[in-house]
Design brief:
This protein is mainly beta and 288 residues long. The chain is built from one helix and 25 strands. Bound molecules: zinc ion.
C-alpha cells in the first residue's frame, strides 16, 4: 500500500507533497527567500538543513530559514528517533529585488585609519558570536509587531552596483522618524548584544529563540542591557542616526543564525513593502 504522506505547508493553503514513505513533517510559514518557518515533526527527531543539525524540541518543533538568494530547491533531512532518514524537497519561492546600477562615479577610496579598522573588526567578531546563540525558549511563538512608527525608507534585499562593483545587499527594513522616536521589542526575547559600534552605531540584538533574532542599528539610546529579558511592546531604545547613517532611522534586521531575513515577511502584507509606505498603529499604510 502506498503510504504517501505529506507536508502541510501553509502557503496560501497549498499542500506540498513529499515522496512516498516519508515521515510526515508539517511546515508553518511560507517557503520564500528571506523567510523563516517552523518545522514540526515527531519529538526526538533531528533535522539537517544547510549542514546545520537541529534538535527538535519537546513539541517536535524547530526553525529553518532561507537566505536572500536561496536556490529554488532545498533538501530538508529528517532523522526520526529510530534513526530513519527521510529527505524532503522544499521549493523556495524566488523573489525579485531592487538592483540599482550607478556608473561613472569618481573613484574615491576612503580608507579608515588603523584604529577605526580594528574597531570595525572587533564589532564584527562580537556580532558573529551573538549570531551563533541558540536560545532554547521559543519566544517567537508570541508573534511580531512593528518595532517603531515612521516611513519606510529602505527594504530588504535591495542592492546597489557602483561602477560595476556590487555592494552588500540591504538586509533589513529601514523605518525613519524623528530622533528620539520610541523603539519597542517586536516580540519577547533576550538581549544578546548591546554595543556602540563603528558602522551600525548603537546596536541591539533581541534574541527570539531557536537562532532567530532581531537586530536594531543606529539607535540614539539603548534602554536595556545585555542579558535582559524583554516583552513584546516594551520600549527598548530610541531612534537615532549613530554610526554610518545619513539621518535618524531604525534599521531592523532579522537573522536565523547568520542567514539574513526579511522582517516584512512576518506581517502577511498583501503587497511587497516599498519605500514611501508608513508604519502607524502597527499597520502598513500605503501612500496611494
Ligand atoms: Zn538599513
Amino acid at each position: 500500500m502506498f503510504n504517501r504522506q505529506w507536508i502541510k505547508a501553509l502557503v496560501g493553503g497549498i499542500a506540498i507533497w513529499a515522496s512516498s514513505n516519508a515521515i510526515a513533517i508539517e511546515i508553518k510559514g511560507d517557503l520564500v527567500q528571506g523567510n523563516w518557518v517552523q518545522v514540526l515533526a515527531e519529538p526526538g527527531s533531528q533535522l539537517v538543513f544547510e549542514q546545520r543539525k537541529l534538535n527538535l524540541d519537546a513539541e517536535g518543533r524547530a526553525l529553518i530559514a532561507f537566505s536572500r538568494d536561496a536556490k529554488p530547491e532545498k533538501t530538508l533531512t529528517l532523522i526520526s528517533p529510530n534513526g530513519d532518514k527521510t529527505e524532503h524537497r522544499l521549493t523556495i519561492a524566488q523573489r525579485d529585488y531592487i538592483v540599482q546600477r550607478i556608473d561613472g562615479l569618481p573613484a574615491k577610496h576612503v580608507t579608515p585609519d588603523e584604529a577605526t579598522l580594528a574597531k570595525i573588526r572587533e564589532d564584527g567578531r562580537k556580532a558573529v558570536e551573538a549570531r551563533k546563540i541558540e536560545l532554547a525558549t521559543p519566544y517567537f511563538l508570541g508573534g511580531f509587531i512593528w518595532p517603531a512608527e515612521g516611513w519606510i525608507t529602505g527594504i530588504y534585499g535591495s542592492q546597489r552596483i557602483l561602477n560595476g562593483h556590487p555592494r552588500r545587499p540591504h538586509f533589513g527594513v529601514d523605518i525613519a522618524e524623528a530622533t528620539g522616536t520610541p523603539i519597542y521589542a517586536p516580540a519577547d526575547g533576550e538581549v544578546t548584544l548591546a554595543e556602540s559600534m563603528e558602522l551600525s552605531g548603537n546596536t541591539l540584538f533581541i534574541d527570539h529563540g531557536y537562532g532567530l533574532r532581531s537586530d536594531f542599528m543606529h539607535l540614539e539610546e539603548i534602554l536595556v542591557k545585555l542579558g535582559d529579558q524583554v516583552k513584546q511592546g516594551q520600549q527598548v531604545a530610541t531612534m537615532g542616526a549613530t554610526g554610518r547613517a545619513t539621518g535618524p532611522h531604525l534599521h531592523w534586521g532579522m537573522s536565523w543564525f547568520d542567514v539574513r531575513l526579511d522582517p516584512a515577511l512576518m506581517f502577511n502584507l498583501d503587497r511587497t513593502l516599498a519605500r514611501g509606505a508608513r508604519i502607524m498603529n502597527n499597520q502598513v499604510v500605503w501612500e496611494d
